[in-house]
Amino acid sequence: MNECFLIGKIIGKIEFEFIINNKSYISISMFDIMINKENILKVVGYNNIADFCYKTLKRGDIVSIYGNLNSKGKIEIKEIET
């Protein structure tokens, strides 16, 4: 498991999807952050974290993220703070 601790600036629109799959509900939030003025990473959050990101975050916010690097090269958010 690859754990990550990142601080970056949200540079894109926060996308939100809601999926209904066999009586289970999944919300997904995705956005890009810039670290070190040159590296851009894609981050994704699920369920409660996705709801928090969509409701409270906006482009230009500086965020602190604790998460995991998944097999698709995205950071899966475990915890996030502004």
Question: What this model shows, in words?
Answer:
By secondary structure, this protein is mainly β. Helix content is 11%, strand content 61%. It contains one helix and six strands. Strands 1-3-4-6-5 form a five-stranded mixed barrel. The chain starts with a strand and ends with a strand. The mean pLDDT is 88.
Keywords:
82 residues, five-stranded mixed β-barrel, single chain, 11% helix
- Report the β-strand fraction as a percent range: over 45%
Label the overall shape: globular
Tally the helices: what do you get? 1
The helicity comes to 10-25%
Rounded to the nearest angstrom, the distance between the terminal CA atoms is 25 Å
Question: How large, in whole angstroms, is the Cα Rg?
Answer: 12 Å
| Order of the strands making up the biggest sheet | 1-3-4-6-5
The description of the largest β-sheet is:
5 strands, mixed, barrel
Question: Can you summarize this structure?
Answer:
The chain is mainly beta and 82 residues long. Helices cover 11% and strands 61% of the residues.
Break the fold down into its secondary structure elements and pairings:
Blueprint: E1 3-10, E2 15-21, E3 24-35, E4 39-46, H1 48-56, E5 62-69, E6 75-81
Parallel strand pairs: 4-6
Antiparallel strand pairs: 1-3, 1-5, 2-3, 3-4, 5-6
